[in-house]
Design brief:
Layout lengths: L10 H10 L3 H27 L12 H12 L3 H12 L19 E4 L16 E4 L1 H7 L26 E10 L2 E10 L7 H13 L2 H23 L4 H19 L4 H10 L2 H6 L2
Antiparallel strand pairs: 1-2, 3-4
The structure holds zinc ion.
Length: about 280
């Protein structure tokens, strides 16, 4: 998982262009609502700078207004495509295709961090759009707040993340079909110095998106990828191979970041001498 960059420019300008591109009665109705929507945008923009978005209350819109507001996102207007492209292109190139919520899949969808069913006025607000994978988007649903009012999911535009790894990986080796393969499990561990309250949000995020199990289910594929990279080196000794893999991991960590689950898994696999011996 990794932080997201917000696109530059006032989110209202994208809204104005999207509404301006609409013809007919819907365009007229949305233009008439623009002042009210802009006031809501000001509330959200302010909350984002204070990281206090959990306290934003829903606003009352009638069914017709809701439909018009949601249509801003559901249409295929060029201005909406432009907004989505701007969000994606603003991200770091090497990781822009990775879902920030899980770090596993690519992004094929946009999640509305604040659910658009509850906050239709933010359906095309650039801060509220998170490029993510369909699995995360489906699991996240509309449960953005917990019963105690705390947020459920990490907001990668604003929330602080640990600087140090927070995934503890356990590996046991078993032999299948004559080959040594790992049985892997992942656990969350709060890095020293990272605030307990902030970590509670991360724990909730992991729980709701079922991330530990999803990493476990992907672990064998990643093990094979690392083994293939190691075998391709055709190293003669464990020490030579270890040095190669250390450099490889260092490069991958620069690209994926220290919090990525693949980095945690690779680091753990490399600690096991029998794994290195199998790759000679
Ligand atoms: Zn995802």
């Amino acid at each position: 998982m990794h932080k997201l960059r917000r696109i530059s420019g006032d989110p209202t300008s994208y809204l104005t262009r999207i509404i301006g591109s609409k013809n007919g009665p819907r365009g007229g109705r949305l233009s008439a609502m623009l002042g009210r929507i802009s006031m809501r945008y000001a509330v959200l923009n302010g909350a984002y700078t204070r990281t206090g978005i959990g306290g934003i209350k829903v606003s009352t819109w009638n069914d017709g207004q809701k439909e018009d507001l949601l249509h801003c996102y559901e249409s295929t207007a060029a201005e909406l495509v432009n907004l989505k492209n701007s969000i994606i292109n603003r991200q770091i190139e090497e990781i822009r295709d990775i879902c920030p919520y899980c770090g596993i899949g690519g992004h094929g969808q946009f999640d509305h961090y604040m659910p658009k069913a509850k906050f239709p006025e933010f359906s095309v607000h650039s801060y509220n759009l998170v490029p993510c994978c369909d699995k995360c988007n489906g699991l996240k649903g509309e449960a953005w707040l917990q019963t105690n009012g705390a947020r459920t999911f990490i907001n990668f535009y604003i929330d602080s993340l640990p600087a140090a790894p927070m995934l503890d990986v356990q590996v046991q080796w078993v032999v299948k079909n004559g080959k040594r393969v790992p049985k892997v499990s992942f656990h969350l561990a709060r890095p020293t110095g990272f605030r307990t309250e902030s970590f509670a949000l991360i724990e909730s995020h992991f729980r709701k998106l079922n991330l530990l199990d999803r990493y476990k289910n992907q672990a064998h594929t990643e093990f094979l990828a690392l083994r293939d990279a190691a075998l391709g080196r055709k190293a003669k000794t464990v020490e030579t191979l270890r040095k190669f893999l250390e450099n490889y991991l260092e490069q991958r960590a620069k690209t994926l970041g220290p919090l990525n689950w693949r980095i945690a898994l690779y680091s753990k696999l490399m600690e096991h001498r029998p794994f290195l011996q199998d790759c000679l």
